[in-house]
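tool=predict chain=A
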Amino acid sequence: MASRRLPLVAAVVVGLVAVVGVYFVLRPGDSSDAPEGNAGRSDCVRLEVSASTEKGDLLAELGKQYNTAGRTFDGKCAAVIVRKKTSGAAMQALADGWTDGAAPQVWAPSSSLWLDVLRERTGASDKRILADAEPASIATSPLVLAMPKPMAEALGWPGKQVGWADVLALSADPQGWGRYGHPEWGKFRLGKDNPHRSTSGLGATVATFYAATGRSSDLTADEVASPKVTDYVRGVEAGVLHYSDDAVKYLANLAEADAQGKALRYVSAIAMQEELVYLYNSGAPNGDPAQIGKGRKPQVPLVALYPKDGTLMFDHPLVVLADATDEQKAAAADFQAFLQDPAQQRRFAEHGFRDYQGKAGDSLATTIGAPRDQQLSLIDPPSPTVLAKILDRWDELRKKARVLLVIDVSGSMNDTAGNGKSKLEAAKDAAVEALRQLHPDDEVAVWAFSTETQDNPGAVYREVVPFTRVGQGGDRIRTSIKGLQAEGGTALYHVVRLAQQHVLANTAPDRINAVVVLTDGKNEYPKDNDLNALLRDVDAENLEQSVRLFAIAFGDKSDLGTLDRIAKASRGAAYDARNPATITEVFVSVLSNF
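tool=predict ok
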């Protein structure tokens, strides 16, 4: 597959990245589905496209342009509809049989690596998901280590190249940044996505396994399982602050930290696509292309480090699926040709992408500080079988978690969530499903909270399950969640404070320590109604050790704005499940941080 064997990177340019809380709204229905041009006609061939989130808005814009351009193929017109979904989530949805709205005929993930994962997942199935046509790239972007400029300079940038081995050495050094004369920066902290959900996470994981062997191609399954590689990868993962399902979340909160003058206080480097570094420096940390040149540019800009021991070029393929009709396949070919035209390629360049042949534009090089003669260290993607082994090994070697689930059981959780379920029933089902992705060595505790009730006077929560390893007590955890009942009000602020204090008092230094709070309402507890006091109490800057809060705003009566402020103060994330139909997907996204 020529398009997926594009050059892969490594060298040095430096990046900035330090992240704070996270607020991300994923709406699977976001699309270009509007009655414009061909999209409003019934005689055009309808073409549903599932696009990765970092280019979903741009593809939606270009889809609308295509629909109004008057293009035809074989005497027919096409109506292109673009919807956003992370590459990993789309891969899993295709493997399971698409049930989340209209099924796509075209898939636009960030990398052809996902095609190999999909083939491996569905290899035993008779169902063919991918069409026979060779996918074609519509843009490219290499994986980089983005780092705050002062930190990159401390490592010797731009004169010195940096690699994964340097990340390992810094992560393992008890002096942390003191090794380079900056003890005030603390330990080296790596931001990395979950490879089952994110292309940046998948690419970084693959590159780490290659770096452990010193190879640039032909990685074998035996090498993946070797003690040398095991120790190397485990060392890199030990330096991870927490995982995410989309690197855009890091950048949104890095911008928040930068605005507060704290860009160097949270994370030391983040593995992400080069294009995202461009967006951040251009004032669009949320990944919204409409904000390029309009949003606030960072005080501490990002520069991109290209690992000298190897990285990947993400090829952003346009993949036709087997269920597409002949007319839809022809429409996809015409849309592909449209996207590869110079005018559309300029639009990709304006958003920080390289062109579909791997060439960087002048604006990209200037904005991220890349030298014009940059030589990239290339690694060849592994075979599908080896890629599957890498993901299996990562599950074993990743940093494990200690997570307290705090579930709202106030009376309003008895309200309907649709599909014949109450909100509490939907939340319980989502929690049980999401727990399946945790490792047996992860630890989970469960609290149920409301306000003081006759059965529970003087307390706003009850411990349903203490911290328990999933492998030993998974059935107990799931059964206890399923048995929750709703009653009372919403003592949100009080339980958040108590939950964070509980985890803080029981912190495991070698684990990701976090609280996940799901609530469908606003604070209804007069005894503790001071939001500013809560924000001060959970502020990671005020704590020797931080416990991140991840909040889920569930249902249309939930207070997403307040949950966002609480999560950001703790350097965590708020998630939007105000549409109850999204709760399972959102819960899975939340637990992918661990």
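The CA atoms of residues 455 and 487 lie 10 Å apart. Residues 28-139+316-357 form a domain with the D-Maltodextrin-Binding Protein; domain 2 fold (CATH 3.40.190.10).
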